[in-house]
Design goal:
42% helix, alpha+beta, 3-stranded antiparallel beta sheet, PH-domain like, 4-stranded antiparallel beta sheet, 159 residues, 3 helices
């Protein structure tokens, strides 16, 4: 590919916001706690051996510790590089990855009460990123995506 005087741009990764990670951890703690209580009730009601409860508690603690490690780790949800973008962990985002040349434009929208950045592809598909989920200023994220998109299309800003 030709370098038309546009310097390469480094990849940028955006992790989940800390509040979202903690909500996920809290949900996992709740589920693990309910599982332990249900097993404890079953052990008491059915006269099962105590080892069943002990194993359940050990498994629940292991799951909570594992999820705690995942929650404090800043896994990238959106990665932007000179070639395109990639999304992980967002179930209903639409297209998970595309090259910048496939992207028609970037718009912002409010969908179901959430501010989103929407990448519209040339073939009519879209990628929707709820900006509240990212550990970044929403305006800065949109500017960064727009800068990557401009570079991907070979545009340069006039200064």
């Amino acid at each position: 590919m030709f370098n038309l005087g546009v310097p390469a741009q480094e990849a940028t990764a955006y992790p989940l916001a800390a509040a979202v990670r903690m909500q996920l951890l809290g949900s996992a703690l709740l589920v693990a706690g309910v599982a332990v209580v249900l097993v404890a009730v079953a052990v008491a009601a059915l006269g099962l051996p105590g080892i069943v409860l002990a194993v359940t508690v050990v498994v629940a603690v292991a799951v909570v510790v594992g999820l705690g490690l995942v929650a404090v780790r800043r896994w990238p949800v959106v990665t932007l590089d000179e070639h395109g973008y990639r999304l992980r962990l967002l179930r209903s985002a639409g297209v998970r990855h595309a090259a910048w040349r496939e992207v028609e434009d970037l718009v912002t929208a409010t969908l179901k009460g959430h501010d989103c950045a929407v990448l519209r592809l040339r073939d009519g598909r879209t990628t929707t990123v709820p900006v509240r989920l990212l550990d970044a200023d929403p305006d800065a994220f949109v500017r960064d995506v727009a800068a990557h998109l401009d570079r991907g299309h070979g545009y340069r800003r006039i200064r």
